[in-house]
Amino acid sequence: MINKKTKFCKAAALLGAAVMMISALAGCGKNTKVVLTAGLKKNEVFRISSASCVLPEVMVYLTNMQNQYESVYGSQIWNASDGQLSLEQEEREQVLTQLARIKVMNLLAQKKEVTLDDKEKERAAAAGREYFTSLNSAEVTALNVTQDLITKMYEEYALAEKVYQTIVENVNPEVSDDEARTITVDMIRVSSAAKASQVLGKAKEEGVDFETLAQAESEDQTVTQSFGKGEVSEALEKAAFNLGKDEISDVVESDGSYYILKCISTFDEAQTKANKEKIVKQRQSEAFDTEYTAFEQTLVRQLNEELWNSVTMIHQDDVKTSSFFEVYQMYFQHQE
Question: How far apart are CA 81 and CA 84, in angstroms?
Answer without folding.
Answer: 7
